[in-house]
Design a protein that fits this description.
The complex is a heterodimer of chains A (about 130) and B (about 140). With about 130 residues, chain A is mainly α. Chain A has four helices and no strands. Chain B has six helices and no strands. Classes of the chains: A mainly alpha (about 130), B mainly alpha (about 140).
């Protein structure tokens, strides 16, 4: 086995020629939202440290969080959190050996997409005091 | 239990054995911890989401009062422990998958693990300061 010459072999998957599918998109989105959440934890740490620091440092954080870019980041964070949560449950379901066939994967994928949209809207309505 | 290879029955070549390459017998450890922390995070994140109005409350006193509740503090602590651990494990896989330069990969892995650990410690410490009402000015 060790005398096979090293040569450039094609690597799969060939992302350039692949047609985007819902299943592959929901898969990569899990990773993207995970990375986004990891960076979002910086803001979470800042929030807690600002609170511990006192009223002035908390004010600094609130000025950031209340600005349009702060709100944009928080929206991205909550969307990512909800998507990663729902799709994570989907992955755990697969790990347990359930719903691995194509039809089920599509069904659960749409459930995650619509569930994320709905839950994100509800959370933001609640955050702005529009409901409950 | 360390894995001891049976040299009589093993199909590995003597060269492979001498090089010490092959399975480190820890293949599922990282994967398993990632699942374990994710299962723990499901109820924790659901709880966090249900508290969204407390989380985004801009009022200082009310937020301090909320975080001083022992139940809230403990759940928040659990979220910090499992959340940062889960994030560190996840970012490790991302770096391992996409960074191919050995030096960059090693550097980024060390840096990300240290960063997550530092942020977790800082968050826990902040929560302790809030809960034990430590006022640095009164200690002088």
């Amino acid at each position: 086995m060790s005398n096979i010459p090293k040569q450039k072999r094609p690597l799969s998957p060939h992302l350039q020629v692949y047609k985007p599918q819902m299943t592959s998109m929901t898969s990569i989105m899990n990773r993207i939202t995970g990375v986004a959440l990891s960076f979002g934890l910086i803001m979470f740490t800042w929030w807690l440290c600002a609170l511990a620091g006192g009223i002035e440092t908390h004010m600094q954080f609130q000025n950031f969080a209340g600005s349009w870019y702060g709100q944009f980041l928080l929206m991205g964070f909550s969307f990512s959190l909800i998507y990663h949560l729902l799709n994570g449950i989907r992955h755990l379901m697969w790990d347990a050996g359930n719903g691995i066939d194509i039809a089920s994967a599509y069904r659960s994928g749409w459930l995650v997409i619509f569930g994320t949209a709905l839950l994100t809207l509800v959370i933001w309505a609640k955050a702005y005091g529009l409901i409950f | 239990m360390p894995y001891i290879e049976n040299t009589k029955t093993s199909i590995r070549s003597p060269l492979a054995r001498a090089r010490g390459t092959g399975s480190a017998r820890g293949g599922t450890h990282h994967w398993w911890l990632q699942r374990l922390t994710s299962v723990a995070l499901i109820p924790l994140v659901l709880w966090l989401l249900s508290c969204i109005d407390c989380l985004v409350n801009p009022d200082y006193q009310q937020t301090i009062m909320w975080l001083s509740n022992p139940f809230v503090a403990i759940v928040m602590l659990l979220f910090i422990v499992f959340g940062f651990y889960h994030a560190a494990l996840g970012m490790q896989v991302v770096f391992e998958d996409y960074v191919h330069n050995k030096l960059w990969k090693a550097g980024l892995l060390v840096l990300s693990h240290l960063a997550f650990f530092t942020m977790a410690v800082a968050s826990i410490f902040a929560l302790m300061v809030i809960n034990f009402k430590i006022d640095p000015l009164q200690m002088i």
